[in-house]
Amino acid sequence: MRILITAGPTREHLDPVRYLSNASTGRMGVALAEAAIARGHGVVLVCGPVEAPLPSGAEIRRVTSAHEMLAACLDAFRGCDAAVMAAAVCDYRPLSRQDRKMHRKGAGLTLELAPTEDICARLGAIKGRRVVVGFALEDESGGAKVRAAEKRASKHCDAIVLNALSNIGADAGQCEILLEQGGWQPAAHGAKRQLADEIMTVVERLASREFDRS
Question: What CA–CA distance (Å, rounded) separates 81 from 111?
Fold first, then answer.
């Protein structure tokens, strides 16, 4: 298979030096790419500004903003059999970007934000027989699975990975995977590379199911 994997955060610039972003390191996406390569798959890794070393053997496409990530994913997905959307894409961007650094003033500052496009949902809408796996990070313990299930359905994903908030920046963690057909799978625990192997096993099984139908 040839698999599109996204990793890391995006940055939405307010001016040349300031931006909105999040705490994603990109380690999960990199671990997924490493796991896929080890299993003999071709990988296109679309990554924002990541802290983790990038794997050799992957086709790397570096981006900064959500708009750039969307364009790179749409281009790469044309030649891929599956997509695993592990990136933590900013949900909002500044409505306007200043060309020069903004200087501090005595008064407060109000920012106008516009929503970014949902990249995973965009790929889910055009996937056809291809596999799309989304990610959800939820911090509401009581409703996390409900929100993840809603996201899977709305984005037309074959599966969604529910991450715990404690996974951010950590070398290890836990996740749960919801399949469109098959429901919730047993929770996986361990190093991010171990979690990546669990997720890639799901991707392979989903792809095999889809290819058998063709």
Answer: 40
